[in-house]
Structure formats: structure tokens, C-alpha cells
Amino acid sequence: MTTAAMSRAGGPSINLLGGFAVHVGHQVVPMPRNAQRVLGFLAVTGVEQLRDTVAGNLWPAAAPERAMSNLRTALWRVRQADPRIVPARRAAVCLDQEVRIDYELITSQARRIIAEYPVEDQAITGAAQLLEADLLPGWDEEWLMLDRERHRQLRIHALEKLSELLTS
Fold first, then answer.
1. Which are the contacts of 42, defined by CB distance < 8 A and separation ≥ 6?
2. Model pLDDT, residue 129
3. Mean pLDDT, each 10-residue run in order, the chain (168 residues)
4. Strand pairing of 13-15 and 21-24?
5. Is the distance from CB of 107 to CB of 21 less than 8 angstroms?
6. Which helix (H) or strand (E) segment is 135 a member of?
7. Are strands 100-101 and 13-15 parallel, antiparallel or unpaired?
8. Which H or E element spans position 128?
9. Contact criterion met (CB below 8 Å) for 77 and 85
């Protein structure tokens, strides 16, 4: 599914490839930088995180109380845009299961291509376009470096396999 198709589907979606964006319905919703960082972290890690873990990773130089305050403010901003994106929980935070994330979709599609599962021609074309995009370009977050390299390696292998499929 392409990024455009994700945003047309109606529910919330987060784009991490080629740049950060949050879509609610058919509109891009502007987010402050702290909210972007929280959503980016949750979307890349893909699992529920303890609030302390999120705050510590995103604001490592801040005092723990200040980091938690930053996290609360960021989550409040996200919920103002759409409360479905991050459900309210006391000790942990995660993205709602209904939030579509381009990074997850492309990662899944790249793995299917590498494993040689049958892939439709239209999906191959869309995958080739999205496999060109970097993960959160311009972000210099320490927590992101390993995932960015992992994504780059996956892209290389998927593009190699894709070129084999297209030439055969």
C-alpha cells in the first residue's frame, strides 16, 4: 500500500519514510517537534514502551522529572490531533493498532520480496518507489541510528531481489 493509499484509507497514519508526517483522514496534521519525536520512537520500535523508557530515550540529558513532563506534554499534543493515535495508559505508551505506519508496511513488503513470496506487479512498483526513501531523514536521534542502518540493509537486499524479479 502506498503512502497516498494509506492516507486515503481514513484512519490515522504515520509516515516515517522520506520524512515525517501524520495523516488523520485526508489531512496532514502538523505536530510539534516533541510530539513528532514520541510518535517516531513508538512507530520505529513498534511495541508498547514504559513511559520511563520513552522519556529516557528521547530526553537523555534532562532530569527524569523534566523528561517525563516533556513526554506528558507531547502526548497531550498528539491526543489533541486525534485521540485514536496513542491510547491513554498509565505506565506505558504505544500506538493504537489501527494506526497505519508506512515503515511497517514497507518492511513487511521488503521481507516478502526477499523471501520470494508471490508479489503482485503493482506491489512491486509501489515497493520500488518506497524502498527509495530513507527512514526519518534529517533526524539525528541516537536511538534511531541502529534502526536506520537495519532499514538501509533491508532496502539493499530487497532492491537486489526486486531487480532479479524484474529482469526475469
1. 49, 54, 86, 93, 94, 95
2. 67
3. 48 95 94 98 97 97 98 97 92 96 91 76 64 91 96 92 81
4. antiparallel
5. no
6. none
7. parallel
8. helix 121-130
9. no
Distance (Å) of CA 16 to CA 23, 108, 115, 117, 134: 12, 15, 24, 25, 8
Greatest Cα-to-Cα distance within the chain, rounded to the nearest angstrom: 58
pLDDT given at position 8: 43
Region of residue 104 (phi > 0: left; psi between -120 and 50: alpha; otherwise: beta) = alpha
Helices and strands, number each (H, E), in the chain: 7, 6
Which three cell numbers mark 124? 512491486
Q: Which three cell numbers stand for residue 109?
A: 513488503
CA 82 to chain centre: 17
